[in-house]
Design a protein that fits this description.
Rossmann fold; NagB/RpiA_transferase-like; alpha/beta; EC 5.3.1.6; 2 domains; 4-stranded antiparallel beta sheet; binds ribulose-5-phosphate
Length: about 220
């Protein structure tokens, strides 16, 4: 049986039309979307993708999806991306895969952002998972203390015992808050810290969220 992530991913393909520039998100759910998109392209669909991570870029190239970049166009018709948490207002928490900065640039450039998730990602309030925050490596110790002052427990993300390094050469601090009452306000506060590059809070950005739950699809609209 098709898993829910794949089902949500495939349901997003209907929104992609001939001639579009498509923002390609990151993560395992997006990878299912890329596989289906590659099939449509082989059947004759003409699109160009702008990837939001080096991983997505590599996989899209492997699948034969034509790519472009912001040096050719700054207009994205539609972006399709995953998320780690989605609340009832369609605010998102992202960055579990560490691609939040490029994802936000791509998602914000899109006329329409479609999020694809399985039902495990739906929450009544954001903050069950730690909030990923991308920080400059220089002075990350200071930046992390300043982030903690907003009421969370920050943990520097590591891989093989070393700091995880994002596609942009930065670190990620995973910040566990008791709960996130106002995602926009928290995002704005964190962004005021000089060493913070970007937060994984994406409030008021998704136009649609496609949720697959035990083989059934729900499409939420903002
Ligand atoms: O924000 C992300 C990466 O930075 C991903 O979209 C998010 O982690 C969802 O991943 P998956 O589809 O593998 O569950």
């Amino acid at each position: 049986m098709m898993e829910d992530k794949q089902m949500a991913a495939e349901a997003s393909i209907q929104y992609i039309k001939d001639g579009m520039t498509v923002g390609l998100g990151s993560g395992s759910t997006v990878n299912f979307m890329l596989e289906k998109l590659a099939e449509r392209i082989k059947e004759g669909l003409t699109i160009k993708g702008i990837p939001s991570s080096l991983k997505t870029e590599r996989f899209a190239k492997q699948l034969g999806i034509p790519l472009t970049d912001f040096s050719n166009t700054t207009k994205i018709d539609i972006a399709i991306d995953g998320a780690d948490e989605v609340d009832p207002n369609l605010h998102l928490l992202k960055g579990g895969g560490g691609s939040l900065v490029r994802e936000k640039i791509v998602d914000q450039a899109a006329d329409r952002l479609i999020i694809i998730v399985d039902s495990s990602k739906t929450v009544s309030k954001l903050g069950d998972s730690p909030l990923p925050v991308e920080v400059l490596p220089f002075g990350f110790e200071v930046t992390t203390e300043q982030i903690a002052a907003f009421g969370c427990t920050p943990v520097l993300r590591k891989r093989d015992g070393q700091p995880f390094v994002s596609d942009n050469g930065n670190y990620i601090v995973d910040c566990k808050f008791a709960s996130i009452e106002d995602p926009q306000a928290l995002h704005e506060k964190l962004k005021q810290i000089t060493g913070v590059v970007e937060t994984g809070l994406f409030p008021q950005m998704a136009h649609n969220v496609i949720i697959a739950r035990e083989g059934r699809i729900d499409i939420l609209e903002r």
